């Protein structure tokens, strides 16, 4: 069965980003690349998960996880995150770090953090984009897709 090789890179001569829940880079070989649109901290009915950054971050990652599950993937297949924090949440980044460290225990993905003026709804504090690489099927196609890798 074709596989995905995923190797986090955290050279000792760069800042230790593992303490923040992400790697400096991730080397990926094989598999099917999945680009996931930004996910806010809402449920399937667009209800806000809660007013605080921790609950919204958990819900955003739950959404990423559900999308990957539909492709026979998991959060372990995430290789890159783009985290958009609103200006009013910029000083509560530790809440996001704790969620990332809990969700990505081993081999965390690379990440970019951006502070933005706002998101589409005023109560949204965070949005998370993800890139993942999921294993291809034995026939060389991507999971649940006619696309051949």
Poorly predicted runs: none
Give me the count of strands.
6
Describe the largest sheet. Answer: 4 strands, mixed
Shape: globular
The helix/strand class is alpha+beta
The topology string of helices and strands comes to EEEHEHEE
How far apart lie the N and C ends?
13 Å
Strand content: 25-35%
Question: Can you describe what's shown?
Answer:
The chain is an alpha+beta fold and 149 residues long. It is 19% helix and 30% strand. The chain has helices spanning 53-69, 93-103, and strands spanning 5-9, 25-29, 32-40, 78-86, 110-116, 126-134. The strands form two sheets. Strands 3-6-4-5 form a four-stranded mixed β-sheet. The chain has a two-stranded antiparallel sheet with strand order 1-2. α2 (93-103) links the parallel β4 (78-86) and β5 (110-116). α1 packs parallel to α2 (93-103). The mean pLDDT is 91.
Which tags fit this structure?
19% helix, alpha+beta, single chain, 2 helices, 149 residues, 4-stranded mixed beta sheet
């Amino acid at each position: 069965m074709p596989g995905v090789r995923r190797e986090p890179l955290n050279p000792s001569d760069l800042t230790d980003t593992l303490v923040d829940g992400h790697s400096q880079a991730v080397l990926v070989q094989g598999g099917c690349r999945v680009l996931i649109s930004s996910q806010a901290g809402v449920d399937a009915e667009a209800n806000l998960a809660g007013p605080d950054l921790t609950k919204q971050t958990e819900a955003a990652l739950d959404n990423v996880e559900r999308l990957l599950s539909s492709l026979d993937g998991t959060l372990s297949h995430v290789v890159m995150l783009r985290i958009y924090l609103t200006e009013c949440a910029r000083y509560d980044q530790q809440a996001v770090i704790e969620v990332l460290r809990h969700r990505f225990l081993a081999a965390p993905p690379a990440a970019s953090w951006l502070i933005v003026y706002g998101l589409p709804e005023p109560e949204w504090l965070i949005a998370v984009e993800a890139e993942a690489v999921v294993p291809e099927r034995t026939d060389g196609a991507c999971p649940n897709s006619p696309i051949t890798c």
